[in-house]
Amino acid sequence: MTLNGKVALVTGARGGIGRAIVARFLKEGVTVYAGDLTPQGSLAAHDDDGSHFVKLDVTQEADAIAAMDHVRTAHGKLDILVNAAGIEIEKTVEETSLEEWNQSFAVNSTGTFLTSKYALPLMREAAKSGNSASLINFGSYDGFIADPGLAAYCATKGAVHALTRAMACDHGPEGIRVNAICPGYIDTPMLQSFFEGDGSGGGGGNIETLQKAVRDVHPMRTYGTPTDIANLVNWLASDEARYASGQLWVLDGGLSAQVQQMKL
């Protein structure tokens, strides 16, 4: 399996999962464009990983166009797009304002739409080489089943799941594969915010106790790491996954496989 020489753009690239994806791609010899709001991102880390930072607010059409124009000028193609940007609001429908609802959809769903829309012409160029291009969205196990207090987040991820299938059908004949990765609990700043939050997460509880409770509810007795996600992204981006398209790849340590009511 090799990705050497391919060109990728990753959104949300300065977050926990995004940085792991970028690091794995760089290790594989990929030229990586790291799209995010700032070079530091949610981890406030230095931008010294060897990727090319591109300022990209996925809710803004102009930013999506500019990012793809930048890749077009430098390479004329895009082999891999990873739509990893996302936000989470811990509220029920009643508690969620219209502004929060719209912002959730703007980042998680519309952002996926915009970057995909303007990446597709470049991905068609990449597919002309005879190898398929790979577009990887980020859904969630919350797009299948729901955690309490995450109404808007669950809705946005369900939309991404449906959009993934639609794009796979529309663009498969053009040599573009489209899949979605659906993580469960992954050790990221978003998860730590969940533990500390007032919604379905911490609610003022002891962080260590909550972390242990989350680990123990999984059949594997742990939650995932950004590297776990990056490993699956790497495979889906590669030509080894040439026959994989239109699928929702759940990576949750077996969490959604069990009947919660019967767990001892």
UniProtKB/TrEMBL annotation:
GO terms for molecular function: cyclopentanol dehydrogenase activity; quinone binding. Keywords: Oxidoreductase. GO terms for biological process: fatty acid biosynthetic process. The keyword Repeat does not apply. It comes from the Bacteria. It is an enzyme of class 1 (oxidoreductase). This is Cyclopentanol dehydrogenase. It comes from Ruegeria denitrificans.
